[in-house]
Specification:
Shape: globular
Bound molecules: zinc ion
Structural class: alpha/beta
CATH architecture of the largest domain: 3-Layer(aba) Sandwich
Number of strands: 7
Order of helices and strands: EHEHEHEHEEEH
Strand order of the largest sheet: 1-2-3
Radius of gyration: 19 Å
Helix content: 25-40%
CATH class of the largest domain: Alpha Beta
CATH topology of the largest domain: Rossmann fold
Distance between the termini: 34 Å
CATH superfamily of the largest domain: HUPs
Number of domains: 2
Number of helices: 5
Length: 158
């Protein structure tokens, strides 16, 4: 199979050195992309500065290079993409696909991780609110190469 439009990626968090499990995940992703002549991108998940370890970014890049996992293009740093994300959030709100939620974790803890939709039809200000996605009342299905057939109703199960 050759699909030069295929884009794989690896997104390490610079909170420490690359551990073996992450290296295996990077290799699998790299092989998937290279097997179809696709691109393999690298995105540094540097969104939590207090948890970052000094020197981890460079160490991760050096480890990937040492194992021959060369990425395409420039490394993307999440911390430098706030404007792009804000633009997407604006677009989702304008399309009615997102809404602001002011529920506290305390309010939601009894729902076992399934949001009951309290704010779905409210008109809360976005400032200081969580942003939730409005998902259609559909069952989503896909075939995972390892796990097989999978389906889930996002609105009711997530
Ligand atoms: Zn809410």
């Amino acid at each position: 199979m050759t699909d030069s439009s295929y884009i794989g990626r690896f997104a390490p968090t610079p909170s420490g050195f690359l551990h073996f499990g992450s290296l295996v995940a990077a290799l699998a992703s790299w092989l998937d992309a290279r097997a179809v002549n696709g691109r393999w991108l690298l995105r540094m998940e540097d969104t939590d500065p207090p948890r970052e370890m000094p020197g981890a970014r460079d160490a991760i890049l050096q480890t990937l290079e040492r194992y021959g996992l060369h990425w395409d293009g420039e490394v993307v740093f999440q911390s430098q993409r706030h404007d792009a994300y804000a633009a997407v959030v604006d677009r989702l709100f304008n399309m009615g696909l997102a809404y602001a939620c002011t529920c506290s974790r305390k309010q939601l803890e009894r729902y076992n991780g399934i949001y009951p939709g309290f704010c779905r039809n409210a008109e809360h200000a976005r400032e200081g609110a969580a942003i939730r996605l409005r998902v259609p009342e559909l069952i989503y299905r896909f075939t995972d190469r390892v796990q097989g057939e999978y389906q889930q109703h996002l609105g009711r199960e997530v």
